[in-house]
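Q: Sequence in, structure out?
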Amino acid sequence: MIMKKTKRELWRIDPAKMPVRSRGMGVFARFMSNRLAVIALIYIILISTVSIFAPLFSTYERDGIDLQNIMASPSSAHFLGTDLLGRDTFTRLMYGARFSLFVALGSISIATMIGVFLGSLAGFFGGLIDYVVTAIVDIFLSIPIFLVLLIAASVFGGTLLVIPLVIGSVSWMETARIVRAKIQSMRKSGFVEASFTIGERSWLIVLKHVLPHVASSIAVSATIGFANVMLIESALSFLGYGIQPPVPTWGNMLNSALTILRTAPMAAFAPGLLIFITCLCFNLLGKGLKSSLAYSENLL
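A: Exactly. Output:
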C-alpha cells in the first residue's frame, strides 16, 4: 500500500518546494526554539527599554549628589548603594546603559557601513580594487588597534561623537572580509550575468540584487560585532580615554569605583556584571541568528 506524503513531509525532502511564507515561519520557529537566543533577545530589549526610559525607573537625578550617603551600602533608599560622590548607583547604571549602548550602536553602524562598502567593491569588481582593499584589510589587522584607539581618543577627546567614530573606523575589517567572500561567490551567478546583459549599471546591481542576498551575513556580523565594540568602549572608558564624566558609561563607572573597591564593591561589581551579561547576550543572539539564517539560505 502506497502512503501519500503530507506537504510537510515533502518539504522536508525538498525544502525548495516550501512556500516563501512557510520558509519565513520556519526560520522564525527555528530561532524561537533556541532558548538561549530568545532569552538574550528579551534581555537586550529589556535593557534598551530601561535605558531609554531611565527617569521613569528612578526618583534620583543622574548626577544627583547626596553628601549624607557617600559610599552607602545597598538599602531600601539606594537599591545598589551609592558611589564616591553619593550618587545612586542603580540610577547611574540605567543612564550608563543608555550611553554605552548608544556608543556601541554608533560604532558598529560606522564599522558596518565601511565594511560593506569596501567588501562590496573588492568582491564585485575584483582585480586591482580587490588587491588594494585586501591590502588595506591586512594592514589594519596587523596594527595594534587598541594603541591606535588610545592615541586617537587622547588627541580628539572622549565625546559621544568622537568615540563611536574612532572605534567604528578601526572595527570594519571582519565585515569587509565576510561581504567580499559572499559577493565573490555570487559574482558569476545567473541573475548577476542577466543584469549585466540588459545593461544595468554595476552599482545598481550591487544594491538591488547582490547586497540583499548577503544581508543576513551582515546582520550576524553586526550583532556579534556589537559586543566587541562595547568591550572596546568599556576598556577605553575604564582607562580614562573614553566618554568622560559626568556622562556615565559602564566603563567609566568601573574607573570611578577603583578607589572604593573595598569599601563599596557594588559600585564596581554592578557595571562589570552588566558589561559581561550584555556582551554575552549579543554573542548568543548573533549565534542564534546565524543558525536560523543559515537554515533560510539552505532553503533557497
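Residues 1-5, 7-22 have pLDDT under 50 and may be disordered.
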